[in-house]
Amino acid sequence: MIVGIDLGTTNSAVAVWHEGETRLIPNALGECLTPSAVSLDADGRTYVGVAALDRFGTRSTDTALSFKRFMGTEHTVQLGKRRFKPEDLSALILRSLCDNVKPRWASARPKRLSPFRPISTTVSARLLAGPGRSRALPSDA
Prior knowledge:
Blueprint: E1 2-7, E2 11-18, E3 21-24, E4 34-35, E5 37-40, E6 46-48, H1 50-56, E7 63-65, E8 77-79, E9 82-84, H2 86-105, H3 125-129
Antiparallel strand pairs: 1-2, 2-3, 2-4, 5-6, 5-7, 8-9
């Protein structure tokens, strides 16, 4: 079984490749797309996806949307009294997506493998583009 995650700026999704087929995994609400939104309440409880979007209307200062575009920068997001890096907010979304996979696919895992744990690999866009297809930004950019 292979798990693939699309961590999008607006929405995120998770799918599995199992026995020659790809299947999108629905979230707890039965939807295949999870909004890439995170919210924090006064008690520190975290809301992800639709629950976070629902809070945005009345608690906009406690809710983050479109933060993914700032990944890899020094930009931080204020949620209530706490500051988060975009990577940390993205990790909360990834955790939620992985939690959707575990109950549905735990039995599909062969016994000889270790327990389900997400593995993340980041590849530089420059490497993906190939030699001569990218330009470096000045160091003061």
